[in-house]
Write a structure and sequence with these properties.
Mean pLDDT: 95
Number of helices: 1
Helix content: 10-25%
Largest sheet: 5 strands, antiparallel
Number of domains: 2
Distance between the termini: 37 Å
Strand content: over 45%
Strand order of the largest sheet: 3-4-5-6-7
CATH class of the largest domain: Alpha Beta
Number of strands: 7
Length: about 120
């Protein structure tokens, strides 16, 4: 089963349309036309089931070492569900995620702001 095509993501007020650019057995990749925003969903099955949703973002910016030259820089953000093959239903795994999401979204995402600032 595949996600809706295209996907969309809004970053800093800009919405990007991400049509599917590849799919495989349990994997799908969605990319902006310029390739600067890519969303990947993947599922791996072994002793544990690993489900990953990942956003890769790139931009062109002034090179801090050579200010007259621009460079491509990138970052990624992803979420991993690492689940045993038995013992957790989808509803139970989602309940854990719901608690996690509520924790980091509380107080205007202050936990994420602190994490990005180096706190632990």
């Amino acid at each position: 089963m595949a996600f809706t095509d295209p996907q969309s993501i809004t970053i800093s007020g800009t919405t990007y349309s991400l049509p599917r650019v590849s799919s495989g057995n349990g994997n799908g990749t969605y990319s902006s036309a310029d390739g600067l925003v890519v969303v990947t969903a993947s599922n791996a099955y072994s002793r544990r089931t690993r489900r990953v949703l990942r956003v890769d973002h790139s931009k062109i910016t002034a090179d801090p070492f050579v200010p007259a030259q621009n460079s491509k820089v990138s970052m990624s953000n992803y979420m991993v569900f690492d689940i045993p093959p038995a013992g957790y239903s989808n509803a139970e795994a989602k309940a854990v995620y719901d608690g996690f999401k509520a924790m980091f979204a509380a107080s205007s995402d202050s936990l994420i702001t602190k994490l990005l600032g180096g706190e632990s």
